[in-house]
């Protein structure tokens, strides 16, 4: 850890960014050469708390930008004022969204409070990014059908799960064989957003295609085992507790990558899950041919929630299937139901009046 009570000299550039530095800087920092670099400390702290790889990537990105913005000054030399300046620049110059600005703030607070053990008080004077009130893009059932008809093979199967089970893109990529319960018609989502587990429905229409797909994946896994490359990475400390579990069929990815990679820690060849960009590219191509709406893979999840509400399911059920912590997040879909203004039926529609009376009165 960096001793925050011993501030680095203010006349030197802090070597916290990955990469080389000049000889003078290396000479000045020689006594502390054995200490991990700041970004390495950030990574270690994130992994110790079992945050997702995506969170690690995001936090490191924003901490780099924060340091570069202030001419590579060491973070222990800075405090609330510098944080406020950086966050304000994101809103005024970079014009980021409010969620992106909050993401940057969370990364910087993690740096100070967890890594540097330095208390950061109220960050005053921040120009906040404007939060526009936008409803999510939702496809009609016919539009969903048109897009899905343009997909084939694994991308079709993954897109069907996004729509049919309300999965997030990375939740679909992270599915393991043991997470699909064909007997109970359900899927267990492990360590979803907020590190929460939840169950969601397994569409009956997908059972046979999924079983055929898994049969192919299993044969591929057996060939990998025979070649000595049939191991997958396990979450948290399971790899140490159960050294052979990574070879078991149940832990394999439902949607494995087409090639192997070399683990940078163990040096072992493994098969990762299919990269999310494969589905993203295929979905975009199908969407451009089928509809004019600017939909993404995540639009299928929005459509799942909206169509469930249209079909009469209560908001709490939809909330649980989506894994929302607060029902107010789920409530947004009540505003996009395809039932006309504000998602309600007009009381005039229940009077049973015959519209032909109007034309007869005009005669």
Which structural traits does this protein have?
363 residues, mainly alpha, DNA polymerase, domain 1, hpI Integrase, Chain A, 2 domains, three-stranded antiparallel beta sheet, 15 helices, 45% helix, globular, disordered N terminus, disordered C terminus
Describe this protein's structure.
- Helix content is 45%, strand content 6%.
- The chain has 363 residues and is mainly alpha-helical.
- The chain has 2 domains: 23-115, Tyrosine recombinase, N-terminal domain (DNA polymerase, domain 1, Orthogonal Bundle); 135-345, Intergrase catalytic core (hpI Integrase, Chain A).
- The strands form 2 sheets. The chain has a 3-stranded antiparallel beta sheet. Strands 4-5 form a two-stranded antiparallel sheet.
- A hairpin with a 4-residue loop joins strand 1 (180-181) and strand 2.
- Helix 2 (38-48) crosses helix 5 (98-115) and helix 7 (153-165) packs across helix 11 (276-290).
- The longest helix has 21 residues, at 207-227.
- It starts with 22 loop residues before the first helix and ends with a helix.
